[in-house]
């Protein structure tokens, strides 16, 4: 009877805790500290409109911290774009009846790398926060947080231009089918993130 009573009280307390917390907030242990990272969160995730990435860099030199953050964010963005474009190329080529499927797939991947390198110049910075951390007896430490984005439409257009200039791919290339495949992969990427 005592055990049933204890379980009942525990159940009521858990239900009260869930209701008072709204049920959707994560449970944080007493020895944990929640860290809010600037330039991060759902509003900085890739969606149908743009690829997005965020990162931070730190250094005793403010400009070095900024360069590190931008470099990290660009590397993340490039990796995400290459992953999506590889899937787009695979799915597009596999959905077509092509005689030279392997060669065309290689060309798609080659074009994706070229386009990613070229279009990274078109990134837009959407958030930046610079902080300074005082350290005991040492030099101050600068932290630079950044979020960047690249328009998915601009990327698709650049990719289209690159593919339509390629004589091997041009014969079998259908932009509408490519765009449809691209949009499907963007939706899959966003959903699985």
Automatic annotation (TrEMBL):
PROSITE patterns, per database record: PROKAR_LIPOPROTEIN
Protein's organism: Phaeocystidibacter luteus
Its lineage opens with: Bacteria, Pseudomonadati, Bacteroidota, Flavobacteriia, Flavobacteriales
Query: Where does the signal sequence lie?
Result: 1-22
Instruction: Give UniProt keywords alphabetically.
Output: Signal
Q: What is this protein called?
A: LPP20 lipoprotein
């Amino acid at each position: 009877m005592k055990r049933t009573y204890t379980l009942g009280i525990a159940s009521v307390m858990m239900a009260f805790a869930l209701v008072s917390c709204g049920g959707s907030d994560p449970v944080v242990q007493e020895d944990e500290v929640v860290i809010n990272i600037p330039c991060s969160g759902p509003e900085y995730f890739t969606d149908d409109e743009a690829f997005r990435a965020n990162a931070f860099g730190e250094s005793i030199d403010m400009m070095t911290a900024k360069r590190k953050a931008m470099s990290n964010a660009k590397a993340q963005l490039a990796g995400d774009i290459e992953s999506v474009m590889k899937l787009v190329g695979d799915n597009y080529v596999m959905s077509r009846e092509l005689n030279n499927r392997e060669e065309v797939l290689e060309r798609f991947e080659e074009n994706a790398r070229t386009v990613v390198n070229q279009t990274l110049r078109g990134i837009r910075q959407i958030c930046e926060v610079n902080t300074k951390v005082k350290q005991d007896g040492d030099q101050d430490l600068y932290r630079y947080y950044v979020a960047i984005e690249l328009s998915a439409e601009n990327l698709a257009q650049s990719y289209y231009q690159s593919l339509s200039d390629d004589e091997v791919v041009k014969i079998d290339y259908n932009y509408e089918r490519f765009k449809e495949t691209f949009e499907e992969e963007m939706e899959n990427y966003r959903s699985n993130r």
